[in-house]
Every structure is written in structure tokens, then in C-alpha cells.
Write a structure and sequence with these properties.
Layout (H helix, E strand, L loop, with lengths): L1 H34 L3 H16 L3 H26 L7 H16 L6 H29 L4 H23 L30 H18 L1 H11 L1 H6 L4 H28 L11 H11 L4 H23 L5 H34 L1
Helix pairs in contact: 1-2, 1-13, 2-12, 3-7, 3-10, 3-11, 3-12, 4-5, 4-6, 4-10, 4-11, 5-6, 5-10, 7-8, 7-12, 8-10, 11-12, 12-13
């Protein structure tokens, strides 16, 4: 049994690695076409640019982890939903709500630092959980599609945030809330010149907690059972509706904490949004490459954080910054193709069984 599990994990890792490799190869071809150089020269230029832009210097390496930290939260949030057979496309909105609540709680004066930070995390989690539980409840009780509802909740979250930022708490001459109290700010342990903060340790701790929840508890077993086979889970006495709402709430709580940590550690205020920040959407790709495994999300988030950060450096070497998005898109395409082939294979097996 252990060998079977190890084999599945190894196979998942190999497939994810292959998807990344194919994405890089396709990108090299596009760089060669746009630059007129050969494949070897284009590969050297592309990989060298990505490396220099994300890992080449100390400051770039540190900033890669800054970019990766929110993606760990959103990747884990999506992974929880995926494991339960749900598509929580509203992680983006839940992240925004977490940012908004953290910026409002963070400006309250006179709270001791440790309590203030805990309060920010707790309220971010609560706000994100409520925001996600609404479409979860609608799916469980009414049967509405969670994808449509969560997408709509994203837009509501963005405009609600803008209302508070622009109408209620805007600092004169800006389009942002006041800077949160120093007591509410996470420690930048490498110095104030770097944005990396203790939020990355909170992200890793959360990954471990989610791993324990999903694989070491009865609740996690029920969530995964619902995602694997809802009918079998229900036949076994598992409450499907309860676990749908619970999975969405936990997913939203993780996303809300991510938004709160981003404000407390990096941004220190909520700003008017002219579009989605993108952390929730990128989290989909992070979770897919990680095969919805919390530990794998850490490494996947670092990869996508590096690609996002290096996109600016690519332009310095004459490579369009969209190449980094091309890599991400191809990776997602091949990961999705694997799921599609698996689905077709299962359908064929079921058909063969019925015919027999």
C-alpha cells in the first residue's frame, strides 16, 4: 500500500516536472522566432534571464520569496477546494476581503503587537471564510454552480474594497487607507530594505496544518472522500452538504489569511483596485502544478513567484515579458490535459465494465 502511494506521488511529480519542461521548451521556440537566434542561443538567453531576474542576486532571491508567499496561501486555498471536488474561483475575492479587513483592523491604535497581529490574522480568516461559505452554502442547499457564484463574489469583493478605501477611509491626496500601526506590521527579519517578512513562516506553518488536516484527521478524510466520489461518500454516511460548506469555508479562511498577511507584511495599507491583484488566479496554477498537495504548493509557488518576478528582467534582454505568462499557460494546459486523459480513461473503463 505504501509502495502504491509512493508510486502515485512519484508519477504526479514526474508529470508536473514534464509539464514545466514542455512549457520552457515551447517558450524557447517563441523566443527563437521573435529574436531570430538559434534554439541553443535562445534557450541560454531565456533561462539566463529568468535566473538573473529571480535568483541571480541576493535581492532578487529575497524578492522571489516575497512574490511566492501570497501564492502559497492562495495555492493551498485552491488545493483544499480541489481535494473536495470544488472549484473555488473566488479565492481572488477572499484574498481581497482579507486585505481589506486587515487594513481596517490594523489602523486601530493601542493594541499590543502580538495581539494585534493575531487579531489581523483571525479577522482575515473569518472574513475569507464567510465570503467563501456563501457560495458554498448556495451550492449545498440550492445546487447553484460554485464557479459562477465565486466569480461574481470576486467582483463584489473588489468593489466593496474600493468603496471602503475610496469613500470611507481614504487618506487625503491618496487612493489608499492609512498605513497600519507599527504594532500590526510583521517583522522584516532581513532588514527594512527587504520586503520579506515573517509571513513566509506563517505560510509554511499553515501548509503543515492543512496537510495534517487533510491526511491525519477524520474531517480531512471526509473532505477527500467527497472529492473522490460523492456518491460513495454519502453511502458511507458522510454528510455531503456539510463538507461542501466546510471545504469552501476553510479554503476561504486560508485565502483571507493570505490577504491579511500581505497587508501586514508587505503592503501595510489597502489601495484602490483597478483590477484583481491576481494572486488568487495564479493560485489556481500553483495548486494544479502541485497536484493539490499542500507541501508541493510551496515549491510550485516559488516557481511561479520566480516567473512573475523575472518578467520585468526579460524585457531588459529583448524578450517580451509575456513569455513568463506563456510558460505558465503551457504548464497549465499540459496539467489540464493529464486530467482530461485520466477522465477519458476512467469513462472507457466504466463503459467496458458495463458491456461485460
Amino acid at each position: 500500500m505504501n509502495n502504491s502511494k509512493a508510486s502515485k506521488v512519484t508519477k504526479s511529480f514526474v508529470m508536473s516536472f514534464a509539464a514545466i519542461l514542455v512549457g520552457l521548451i515551447v517558450s524557447v521556440i517563441f523566443v527563437a522566432i521573435s529574436s531570430g537566434n538559434g534554439l541553443i542561443a535562445s534557450a541560454s538567453l531565456l533561462f539566463g534571464s529568468i535566473w538573473r531576474g529571480s535568483f541571480g542576486e541576493k535581492s532578487q532571491l529575497i524578492e522571489t520569496f516575497v512574490f511566492a508567499t501570497p501564492l502559497i496561501f492562495t495555492g493551498v486555498a485552491h488545493a483544499i477546494a480541489f481535494k473536495t471536488g470544488l472549484f473555488n474561483i473566488g479565492v481572488e475575492g477572499q484574498f481581497i476581503i482579507g486585505m481589506l479587513v486587515a487594513s481596517l483592523v490594523g489602523i486601530i491604535p493601542g493594541i499590543p503587537s502580538f495581539i494585534h497581529i493575531l487579531l489581523i490574522i483571525a479577522t482575515g480568516a473569518l472574513a475569507g471564510a464567510i465570503w467563501a461559505a456563501i457560495p458554498g452554502y448556495l451550492k449545498a442547499k440550492v445546487g447553484t454552480n460554485e464557479v459562477v457564484n465565486t466569480i461574481m463574489m470576486n467582483f463584489i469583493a473588489m468593489h466593496l474594497s474600493n468603496y471602503f478605501v475610496y469613500q470611507k477611509f481614504k487618506v487625503e491626496g491618496t487612493v489608499a487607507t492609512p498605513i497600519i500601526q507599527e504594532n500590526a506590521q510583521l517583522t522584516r527579519f532581513l532588514g527594512d530594505q527587504y520586503r520579506l517578512n515573517t509571513g513566509i513562516f506563517i505560510a509554511i506553518a499553515l501548509v503543515i496544518l492543512v496537510f495534517i488536516l487533510l491526511w491525519k484527521t477524520t474531517t480531512g478524510y471526509e473532505l477527500r472522500a467527497v472529492g473522490t466520489s460523492p456518491h460513495a461518500a454519502e453511502y458511507g454516511g458522510i454528510n455531503i452538504n456539510k463538507n461542501i460548506v466546510l471545504a469552501m469555508a476553510i479554503s476561504g479562511a486560508v485565502a483571507g489569511i493570505g490577504g491579511a498577511i500581505h497587508v501586514a507584511g508587505v503592503q501595510h495599507q489597502a489601495m484602490q483596485l483597478f483590477g484583481f491583484p491576481g494572486f488568487g488566479m495564479d493560485g489556481i496554477a500553483v495548486a494544479l502544478v502541485a497536484k493539490s498537495h499542500p507541501i508541493g504548493v510551496i515549491f510550485s509557488a516559488i516557481l511561479f513567484g520566480a516567473l512573475n518576478l523575472s518578467s520585468g528582467t526579460l524585457m531588459l534582454f529583448g524578450i517580451p515579458k509575456t513569455i513568463s505568462y506563456l510558460i505558465q499557460g503551457v504548464v497549465i494546459l499540459f496539467i489540464a490535459a493529464e486530467y482530461m486523459f485520466k477522465w477519458i480513461s476512467e469513462k472507457k473503463k466504466k463503459g467496458a465494465t458495463i458491456n461485460e
